[in-house]
Design a protein that fits this description.
The complex is a heterodimer of chains A (about 280) and B (about 110). Chain A has about 280 residues and is mostly helical. Chain A has a domain at about 5-20 and about 100-280: Hypothetical protein af1432. Chain A has helices at about 5-15, 25-35, 40-45, 50-60, 75-80, 80-100, 105-120, 130-135, 140-150, 150-165, 165-175, 180-190, 195-200, 215-230, 245-250, 255-280. Chain A is globular, with a radius of gyration of 18 Å. In chain B, strand 2 (about 20) and strand 3 form a beta hairpin. Chain B is elongated. Chain B is of the alpha+beta class and about 110 residues long. In chain B, the strands form 2 sheets. Chain B has a two-stranded antiparallel ribbon with strand order 1-4. A two-stranded antiparallel ribbon of chain B has the order 2-3. Chain B contains 4 helices and 4 strands; from the N terminus they run E-E-E-H-E-H-H-H. The chains are: A mainly alpha (about 280), B alpha+beta (about 110).
């Protein structure tokens, strides 16, 4: 049975119905709110959960960030920032589902993370790691649809295929919302900062982003680029239209885009190898 | 750019990426991209545990791999809904040129 929009929102906002969140997160949240707490203290808490630490370190060493030598949680916290480590911890259970059951979406997400990082670096934007994380998480709403409405998901894919429309349009028709909005709800219920929740919620409609339109524009362009490249499989068959507002916000031009595509394709070779390694593990 | 096994590498090919000892990106870099391979260099890589190298163009055909024509057809399909958008058209042209170049095609095909 298809769930209505308000039902769906209720389910998503109720974190108890989501894949279990590690206990560590609550402690981490209270510590990061406290200005007196040190990175070492927070790192110790995360390190106490070995499985979680292993997952965070693996992601911190993924081509989305481009560090490759992050060997401890306190290193990760210093290099990536507490916000990023917290988001990786929060989403690690969702990533686990993606790695196992939706490899195409996992590759797409890692690809967008890597592309967002490269764009942010090339444009000299601050907080590249946050932007990469937003890229990594941008389609998290799709995983929620898979977990919570697997029947509706089949209908969405079928409708998109039959009518040759975008997944986003099919989602709106069948569940009266879309993966971007659901991702936005989820990031709110996780208390992720706006700089992560806005790019997730508005990566298909950059104009709606109020405080972080540059980060949202980067994630939008990164998503379009990875779709255009045909890397991974987000379920989407067609390249979405590039939003002019995103193009203008980032001051893109043809030459810059050509350079970016070369760099991204180069990095995607590493992303592919990283995904294969994870699948074989 | 193509990733090939070192045993398929031949003198005259050009490296498209840096080569690292033991194929590990955190290992020691031993040869920079842009270097033209020689028999001596290939033998040296062998002794340093390098199994794969990235080379310019696409000189080795691998069974089951998509041909340039397949790749271009798929690209056309992905862009089929947005080619009338000027910005998407710019992106399409860059990707098309990129694919042709990475598969070792020449500039005549790009102009077509």
């Amino acid at each position: 049975m298809t769930k209505s929009r308000s039902d769906l929102k209720k389910i998503i906002m109720d974190t108890r119905t989501l894949p279990t969140l590690p206990n560590v997160i609550n402690k981490l949240n209270s510590l990061s709110d406290n200005e007196k707490s040190s990175v070492q203290e927070m790192a110790r808490i995360v390190s106490s959960d070995q499985v979680l630490s292993a997952r965070i370190l693996r992601l911190a060493n993924s081509p989305s960030y481009g560090f490759y030598r992050v060997s401890t949680i306190s290193n990760a916290m210093i290099l990536l920032g507490v916000n990023v480590v917290k988001s990786l911890a929060l989403s690690s259970s969702i990533f686990a589902i993606m790695e196992k059951d939706s490899i195409g979406l996992w590759e797409h997400s890692l690809g967008v993370g890597a592309a967002a990082n490269l764009i942010a670096n090339k444009l000299g934007l601050p907080e590249c790691e946050e932007i990469a994380t937003a890229g990594l998480l941008h389609d998290i709403g799709k995983v929620i649809i898979t977990i919570k409405c697997s029947e509706a998901e089949k209908d969405i894919l079928k409708l998109a295929h039959e009518r040759q429309i975008y997944i986003l349009e099919a989602e709106r028709e069948i569940i009266d919302t879309d993966h971007a909005e659901i991702g936005g709800w989820l990031s709110k219920s996780w208390f992720l900062p706006d700089k992560l929740s806005e790019p997730i919620a508005f990566h298909h409609d950059v104009a709606k982003s109020k405080n972080h339109h540059i980060k949202t524009a980067v994630v939008h362009i990164a998503d379009v680029l990875i779709c255009a490249s045909g890397f991974g499989n987000s379920g989407e068959s067609f390249v979405p239209p590039i939003q002019k507002i995103a193009w203008d916000t980032l001051n893109l031009n043809e030459q810059l885009l050509a350079e970016l595509i070369n760099e991204i394709e180069d990095r995607l070779v590493e992303v592919k190898a990283f995904c294969l390694e994870m699948i074989n593990d | 750019m193509q990733k090939i096994q070192l045993i398929l590498a031949k003198a005259g090919m050009t490296l498209a990426r840096d080569v690292f000892r033991g194929d590990s990106p955190v290992g020691m870099p031993i040869c920079g991209k842009g270097t033209e391979l020689t028999e001596a260099l290939i033998a040296r890589f062998e002794s340093m545990d390098v199994h794969n190298v990235y080379i310019e163009g696409h000189p080795i055909h691998v069974e089951g791999e998509s041909s340039l024509d397949d790749l271009l057809l798929k690209l056309d399909y992905r862009f089929s809904k947005t080619l009338q958008e000027p910005l998407n058209l710019i992106m399409y042209d860059i990707y098309k040129a990129y694919l042709i170049k990475s598969m070792g095609g020449n500039s005549d095909q790009i102009a077509e």
